[in-house]
Design goal:
Blueprint lengths: L4 E6 L3 H13 L3 E5 L12 E2 L1 H8 L4 H7 L5 E5 L4 E5 L14 E2 L2 H13 L5 E3 L2 E8 L2 E7 L5 E11 L6 H6 L3 E18 L6 E5 L4 E6 L6 E6 L11 H11 L5 E18 L3 E2 L2 E3 L5 E2 L7 H21 L8 H26 L3 H19 L2 H12 L12 E2 L21 H4 L6 E6 L7 H8 L6 E7 L8 E5 L5 E6 L4 H10 L16
Parallel strand pairs: 1-2, 1-10, 2-7, 4-12, 10-17, 19-23, 20-21
Antiparallel strand pairs: 3-6, 4-5, 8-9, 9-10, 11-14, 11-15, 12-13, 13-14, 15-18, 16-17, 20-22, 22-23
Helix pairs in contact: 1-4, 1-7, 7-8
């Protein structure tokens, strides 16, 4: 058996790759394995939310994702008697540099993240499968099988299952996966379509079914999503079947051609009973699966990974107490439940055969949707909900408000807004906490801040913002490595801040970064 790892990451989809990027940024010793021989080549998940783009920006990959993707700016809602074009991002979101939903095939997202890791000498061990694990004292002993059939035993302090809906880590850890399957069958295809206005999302809703076209670009111009009609024959998905659905629910003149990928699938709504068992953690689809409504799945998984990654890194390094890991489930399980609830409601409303909902889709939606979607406030609320910009951890033990909280601005547990513009760029360095100090600089002399930084100089970066911070007046705000505020207080007295860092960053690093290697 080789020397114990800090972390074994099982699964190299978007969630596992994001976790690997976070661990690499902290210099944590880890390996990442995946039983598949190659990354996905189909589009699969295709929407990247603003919060995910923000969270990945510190790794230098967001600009590449945006350059490869399509920030569709409007929705064409095709109703019974007319088509309504609805602008999606004219609502004004000054607190994010990415006020749009980016359409990009999952294959491209994985390619960008994989190239990021490769440039940092992190190998992705493909064709390597986890076949068993057992907790033995301080380590999890894992059995891995390579593509040639040889087996290897590996010990790790922690194992993270990013291995999807059929997670081996979840099964081996004895964590239940609770929920249900939807009765309908759905069809997906990446193809070209004649007759569609480019640069928009096209939605066809009727009492009998649903049909969507999303702009992709790669590996095909369009992603088609449709519900298989109840009278359609079962069996292989073919282009004539898809054309028949487009003729039935779409407009005349839509011609489907050049399919790159076609499949059918059943949807589930399930969640892990807990996100941790001993030294084993779950993230992404291993922890929660649901309908694709709102483009939430991949985004929630990536944000699971980035919440967990810095906590594992600091605990492995000895710079944070093991209790920090308990906050992962406390923070992310409620998010997973909310996403499952949100997507379930949207999905049922859009697909249920119940007569009342069929009537609503065929009669009420055509009448009410145009005036409702012209309401900027309503669209702003819908977009902020789907964009995941409003996710917060205010009830987390790591979210502490000092004795004099600011009257305005973000609170402890909130995501740090990019307000004023450029604040995210200043605090984007991965692996760091960022101490934001507002008000006159003379209130923050070195002798006041030095005791807080002692032994933590490579963990905390200080920013004197003057009057250019997200709060008015004199405020201390400590931003976690995932971009959420850990501590906020008003005034220049740092006693509360000192107590906070003594609790969650009690000692400086006790070993050099990169022990066990930067990627292995």
């Amino acid at each position: 058996m080789t020397a114990p790892l800090d972390v074994l990451v099982v699964g190299a989809g978007p969630t596992g790759l994001a976790l690997a990027a976070q661990l690499r940024a902290h210099g944590t010793g880890f390996r990442i394995v995946d039983r598949s021989l190659d990354r996905v080549r189909e589009s699969r998940a295709l929407g990247i939310q603003p919060r995910t783009l923000e969270a990945l920006a510190g790794f230098g990959v967001t600009d590449l994702l945006v350059a490869r993707g399509n920030p569709a700016m409007r929705l064409s809602l095709h109703l019974t008697r007319r088509t309504v074009s609805i602008p999606l991002f004219d609502i004004g979101l000054p607190d994010t540099p990415y006020p749009f939903l980016l359409f990009l095939a999952q294959s491209e997202t994985e390619h960008v993240l994989g190239e990021h890791l490769a440039a940092r000498d992190v190998p992705i061990e493909r064709g390597t499968e986890l076949i068993g694990l057992e907790q033995r004292g301080p380590h999890v002993v894992c059995r891995l099988r390579a593509r040639d059939g040889t087996e290897e035993t590996v010990a790790a302090r922690y194992v993270v299952g990013c291995d999807g809906a059929h997670s081996t880590v979840r099964a081996q850890a004895g964590i239940d996966f609770e929920g249900y399957a939807y009765p309908q069958t759905y069809l997906l295809a990446d193809l070209d379509v004649d007759g569609l206005e480019p640069g928009a999302v096209h939605s066809y809703m009727s009492g009998g079914g649903m049909l969507f076209f999303f702009p992709l670009g790669t590996p095909a111009p369009w992603r088609m999503l449709a519900m298989r009609p109840s009278d359609a024959p079962d069996g292989k998905v073919t282009l004539p079947l898809l054309q028949g659905i487009a003729d039935r629910y779409g407009e005349r003149g839509l011609v489907l051609r050049g399919p790159v990928w076609m499949t059918d699938f059943r949807l589930h709504n399930r969640g892990a009973a807990r996100y941790r068992s001993g030294s084993c953690f779950l993230a992404g689809d291993a922890a929660h699966i649901h309908s694709p409504a709102g483009a939430q799945g991949m985004n929630t998984g990536i944000q699971d990974a980035l919440n967990l990654g810095w906590k594992l890194a600091l605990v492995c390094r000895g710079a944070a107490p093991p209790e920090l890991l308990e906050t992962y489930g406390a923070e992310r399980a409620p998010v997973g439940r909310d996403v499952r609830r949100f997507t379930d409601r949207a999905f049922v409303i859009g697909t249920s055969p119940h007569p009342v909902l069929r009537f609503a889709r065929s009669e009420l939606v055509p009448r009410l949707a145009p005036p409702a979607m012209r309401a900027t406030a309503l669209r702003a609320w819908v977009f902020r909900t789907a964009s995941e910009l409003g996710i917060h951890y205010r009830r987390s033990p790591v979210s502490v408000t000092g004795p004099r909280p600011p009257r305005r601005g973000p609170r402890a547990g909130d995501r740090l807004p990019d307000r004023p513009a450029g604040l995210h760029a200043r605090t984007a360095a991965p692996g760091c906490w960022h101490l934001l100090l507002t008000g006159p600089p003379h209130l923050w002399p070195d002798q006041r801040i030095a005791p807080i930084l002692a032994g933590r100089e490579d963990l905390i970066t200080v920013h004197l913002l003057g009057d250019g911070g997200p709060w008015p007046g004199v405020v201390q705000g400590l931003v976690r490595p995932d971009g959420h505020l850990g501590y906020v207080a008003r005034g220049g007295e740092p006693a509360g801040l000192r107590a906070y860092v003594d609790r969650w960053l009690p000692i400086g690093p006790d070993r050099p970064a990169g022990v066990n290697g930067s990627g292995r």
